[in-house]
Design a protein that fits this description.
Strand content: under 5%
Helix content: over 70%
Largest sheet: none
Shape: elongated
Distance between the termini: 24 Å
Number of strands: 0
Structural class: mainly alpha
């Protein structure tokens, strides 16, 4: 066997290895995307339920508030009215973000490259965090909707101190969580308490699967470069 034959065999062998690696990568790519599709699909029922519940809440309470504003503005407690308005408006913003999020999940094209899927899932992760932050801002208004004029006229000092402490605590908590609810804090107990279950875990699992696949591909490329 001469040098030409050896060179031909070497080139042919490299081509077969490349074809085999490409075939394996394609199979792995399809399997990975199938798994990601499964995890994202598992999120849809709870998200649809939450969206419908949010819509009913906004429409139902919103209708009541508008009727009270038009027909009984001078009779209803303004503390209740405006606290409820703020709460409903924040819920409405969260509902809009939910609609965008669900639309994104249903429109994902799994034939696109992994990098594009990663970017889409990162956006979904940010959207989930933003929805949670917005809903957290409702906390202070749950401590003010029952206020009334009689409470301030006839209340005692201990009552004022207690109520002030509750409202200030809830306001501080909501603002603290709003600014600290970041993915960097995902290992904290309070983060896990707020974000868990089908609303969050399948998304993070999907992101991790894609990241592991991308890292594996990068590692294979490095090995090929070194072998050359």
């Amino acid at each position: 066997m001469n040098d030409t034959d050896l060179k031909y065999l070497w080139q042919t062998g490299n081509e077969q290895i490349a074809i085999s690696q490409k075939s394996d990568k394609t199979s792995l790519d399809k399997l990975t995307k199938r798994n990601v599709s499964h995890f994202l699909s598992s999120m849809k029922p709870i998200k649809i339920f939450t969206l419908l519940a949010g819509l009913l809440w906004v429409l139902g309470i919103g209708y009541v508030l508008i009727k009270l504003t038009i027909n009984a503005y001078d009779q209803v407690s303004l503390y209740f009215l405006y606290s409820a308005y703020f709460q409903v408006m924040l819920t409405a913003v969260a509902v809009i973000l939910y609609i965008i999020q669900l639309s994104t999940i249903y429109s994902i094209d799994f034939n696109k490259p992994v990098v594009i899927l990663q970017k889409t899932l990162i956006k979904l992760k940010a959207s989930t965090l933003n929805i949670t932050k917005i809903l957290i801002l409702q906390l202070p208004f749950w401590t003010t909707f029952y206020w009334n004029e009689s409470m301030f006229k006839n209340g005692t000092l201990p009552l004022f101190i207690l109520q002030g402490a509750v409202t200030i605590s809830f306001t501080y908590l909501s603002l603290w969580l709003f600014f600290h609810l970041k993915f960097e804090n995902a290992d904290k107990w309070w983060f896990k308490l707020l974000l868990q279950g089908k609303e969050w875990e399948p998304l993070i699992t999907s992101i991790n699967i894609l990241n592991e696949m991308e890292e594996g591909v990068s590692s294979d490329k490095d090995k090929i470069k070194k072998s050359k």
